[in-house]
């Protein structure tokens, strides 16, 4: 999960991109980067950390130009090194910079193909650099002479769709030409476009979420369709084309559960209203399974679960209270690397108001339960604050399978619900009772808000991978590289070693 933005304007874009990344900060806290285009020249700066920490005035001044792209990074492939922060750059053909949200499932094979067939060197273990080089190669193959137009770029994206597997929402800047944006044929990761009118004409912004557009005065135009490519030249002329053979929209359901901001609209569905619906359906299940007299008060785990908890309390005619106060200067624990860091961060991030718990039977509502670390700590905090009974409810179904499309749920052993019954999970998080959302109810929560949405990417709940290339062997291989014992090299080192071995075999 990352946040990306691209802008083509009639004036400097460095501040626009910076502000957009602040609005997308929730999508990645590991690194941030901006690249701008002026004439045929790129300027780029990227560093580890939050947007506000990565950039200084001197960095912003070094980013001139009326077009550019940016990214906030949350690593799911490669490492957290500064070298793998985005955007990435290649100098041929034309000069291309690219930022990517998603995860390629066949990036290792593509890396070998890049060396063996395309004669391109990949310098890092980032799937985004692989994607950039596939795009560059296909543009080169589609280009005749030195000219470049939208039809050439769309031909290249069509060829890319045939080679690349996984999830990808992309913004790319071609030096001296314009901005290219495209989305994978399943539309797994979100991408939308907006426009603004100035005295010099229309300007365009492409971003992961509509909140980035609206927060900067751009009017939401529409979502980028699955498989579609959009090209905005440096004169702000826009062209689009469907580049996939059989595009079908399968948006990631976890975007609506947790990842996206509630004030965003994704594929025509308000994230906030889908979360209200999650609370409504969860209330119906709780009414069936928990006697009404067993609950005194409903409390959310801030912040993502608040709409669901409010609607749940309303439907069950129960008191709603804010029992936990959030320190907003601590990052989102789900996307923090390392189990111990997440565990320590829970107590730093949340503080319980003892008077709201003392002597009460409390229903705690969270957006989801992934590893269980946060849930267990929160249940213990409620008990320490005097709760006589703690019931835990999840607005999402049990997370039982790895997500390979850009969310860091890489191994089954890390997922508390994998291989466990709900009763066993309840004991693990030390709650008195546990209620999960049903998967059909989660899907209805989204389709009720936008009936046009019928299909969803829900692999972390049901183990069904829509791209059709994720097998048990694939998952076993990913897990084996990540689970190597300390001292024998990290998972990324293992992948790197295997790739180097395969490349060394090429004549």
Automatic annotation (TrEMBL):
The active site is at residue 2. It comes from the Bacteria. Binds 1 Mg(2+) ion per subunit. It is an enzyme of class 2 (transferase). Residues 2-235 form the Glutamine amidotransferase type-2 domain. Mg(2+) binds at residues 304, 366-367. Its EC number is 2.4.2.14. Pathway: Purine metabolism; IMP biosynthesis via de novo pathway; N(1)-(5-phospho-D-ribosyl)glycinamide from 5-phospho-alpha-D-ribose 1-diphosphate: step 1/2. InterPro entries: GATase_2_dom (IPR017932), Ntn_hydrolases_N (IPR029055), PRTase-like (IPR029057), PRTase_dom (IPR000836), PurF (IPR005854), PurF_N (IPR035584). Its cofactor is Mg(2+). GO terms for molecular function: amidophosphoribosyltransferase activity; magnesium ion binding. It catalyses: 5-phospho-beta-D-ribosylamine + L-glutamate + diphosphate = 5-phospho-alpha-D-ribose 1-diphosphate + L-glutamine + H2O. Keywords: Glutamine amidotransferase, Glycosyltransferase, Magnesium, Metal-binding, Purine biosynthesis, Transferase. One of its GO terms (biological process) is purine nucleobase biosynthetic process. Pfam families: GATase_6 (PF13522), Pribosyltran (PF00156). HAMAP family: PurF. PANTHER family: AMIDOPHOSPHORIBOSYLTRANSFERASE (PTHR11907). Catalyzes the formation of phosphoribosylamine from phosphoribosylpyrophosphate (PRPP) and glutamine. In the C-terminal section; belongs to the purine/pyrimidine phosphoribosyltransferase family. This is Amidophosphoribosyltransferase. The lineage of its organism: Bacteria, Pseudomonadati, Pseudomonadota, Betaproteobacteria, Burkholderiales.
């Amino acid at each position: 999960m990352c946040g990306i933005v691209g802008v083509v304007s009639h004036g400097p874009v460095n501040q626009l991109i910076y502000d957009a990344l602040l609005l997308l900060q929730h999508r990645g806290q590991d690194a941030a980067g901006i690249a701008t285009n002026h004439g045929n020249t790129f300027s780029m700066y990227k560093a580890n950390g939050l947007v506000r920490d990565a950039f200084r005035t001197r960095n912003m001044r070094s980013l001139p130009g009326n077009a550019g792209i940016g990214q906030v990074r949350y690593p799911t492939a490669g490492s957290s090194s500064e070298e793998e922060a985005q955007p990435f750059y290649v100098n041929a053909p034309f000069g291309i910079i690219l930022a990517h949200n998603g995860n390629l499932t066949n990036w290792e094979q593509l890396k070998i193909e890049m060396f063996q067939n395309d004669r391109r060197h990949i310098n890092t273990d980032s799937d985004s650099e692989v994607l950039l080089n596939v795009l560059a190669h296909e543009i080169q193959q589609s280009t005749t002479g030195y000219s470049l137009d939208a039809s050439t770029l769309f031909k290249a994206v069509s060829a890319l769709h045939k080679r690349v597997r996984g999830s990808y929402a992309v913004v790319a800047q071609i030096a001296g030409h314009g901005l290219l944006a495209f989305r994978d044929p399943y539309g797994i990761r979100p991408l939308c476009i907006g426009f603004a009118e100035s005295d010099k004409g229309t300007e365009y912004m492409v971003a992961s979420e509509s909140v980035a557009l609206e927060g900067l005065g751009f009017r939401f135009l529409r979502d980028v369709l699955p498989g579609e490519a959009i090209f905005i030249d440096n004169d702000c002329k826009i062209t689009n084309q469907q580049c996939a053979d059989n595009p079908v929209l399968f948006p990631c359901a976890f975007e609506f559960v947790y990842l996206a901001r509630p004030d965003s609209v994704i594929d025509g569905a308000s994230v906030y209203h889908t979360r209200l619906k999650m609370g409504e359906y969860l209330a119906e299940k709780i009414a069936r399974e928990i006697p009404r007299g067993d609950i005194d008060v409903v409390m959310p785990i801030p912040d993502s679960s608040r709409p669901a908890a409010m609607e749940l309390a309303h439907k069950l005619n129960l008191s709603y209270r804010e029992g936990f106060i959030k320190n907003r200067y601590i990052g989102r624990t789900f996307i923090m690397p390392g189990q111990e860091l997440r565990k320590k961060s829970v107590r730093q991030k949340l503080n319980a108001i003892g008077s709201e718990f003392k002597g009460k039977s409390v229903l705690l509502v969270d957006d989801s339960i992934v590893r269980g670390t946060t849930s267990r700590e929160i249940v213990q905090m409620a008990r320490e604050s005097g709760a006589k009974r703690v019931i835990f409810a999840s607005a999402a179904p049990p997370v039982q399978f790895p997500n390979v499309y850009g969310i860091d749920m890489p191994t089954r052993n890390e997922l508390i619900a994998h291989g466990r019954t709900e009763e066993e999970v309840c004991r693990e998080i030390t709650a008195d009772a546990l209620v999960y959302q049903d998967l059909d109810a989660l899907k209805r929560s989204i389709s009720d808000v936008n009936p046009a949405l019928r299909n969803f990417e829900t692999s972390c709940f049901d183990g069904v991978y829509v791209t059709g290339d994720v097998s048990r062997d694939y998952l076993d291989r990913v897990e084996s590289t990540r689970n190597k014992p300390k001292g024998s090299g990290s998972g990324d080192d293992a992948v790197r070693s295997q790739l180097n071995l395969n490349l060394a075999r090429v004549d």
